[in-house]
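Worked example (supplementary).
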Amino acid sequence: MPAEIIDGVAIAAKVRARVAEETAELRKRGVTPGLTAVLVGDDPASGVYVASKERACKEAGMNGKSIRLPASTSEEALLLLIDTLNNDPTVHGILVQMPLPKQISEQKVIRRIAPTKDVDGFHPFNVGKLFTGDADGFAPCTPAGVQVMLEEAGVETAGKDAVIIGRSNIVGKPMAALLIQSGKNANCTVTICHSRTKDLLAHTRRADILIAAIGKPEMVTGDMVKPGAVVIDVGINRVDDPAAPKGYRIVGDVHFEQVSKVASRISPVPGGVGRMTIAMLLANTVRAARLTLEH
Ligand code: GUN
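After joint prediction of all chains, the assembly is encoded as:
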């Protein structure tokens, strides 16, 4: 039987509807949640992401602003802009789109953002809170979105073997931190695999929940998956396709055709995790705005 689809579009729409309701309540109390995204340089893919963040904010009734800076921007200028945003009470969430041009230290930028406005969840304070299971911080949006997808799809996680392929700070490591916690939608036994993993197949084949976040088109093939596993595909890769209208198409890290014959449930690309990232960013921003009323 082919795998059931975990529909990221529908789940993200549900999260965004909840965000819109919470935004309306906060606006009644005099606070309009505001997210400012900063984009340095003119990478077209990053430009598309930032524009869609701004649009999603507006649809939810929030203030969404983008600041676009030239690729030649100095580190000091960006740090001073972050100081301004940290001190602006109408800005509740700050997102600096990664990657940054090479003259700017990503670590310095991440550390300069006020942890209470760090809706990306990249600041070491928030990373520490995530690992210690302190729900007071912000979890990075993509892995938080995967956890919501598992919950909404009714996947039982307690006691399950979760195998994550990829050890990035944006997805792999925080994904592991979320799934090892004791509590709802967690309690997994987690393995992180990476480029130096000795026997990748041995790990992936025993995964009850397999999460692919390596950025390699269709790398996870059917033979790597245990029958009945739940497979979540975080990859968004462009591959050349002369037959496609744009000359390329988007595929995930999972070979969908093969794996959907083996897995019990699978998230597709597009239409899977990608939609969740922005939805969770809005959710984090609304929470940041709410916290300003509580402190
Ligand atoms: N670049 C790729 N993913 C992300 C993300 O989630 N946040 C930021 N700031 N940059 C990214």
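Two points are worth noting when inspecting this output. The chain has a mean pLDDT of 97. The radius of gyration is 19 Å.
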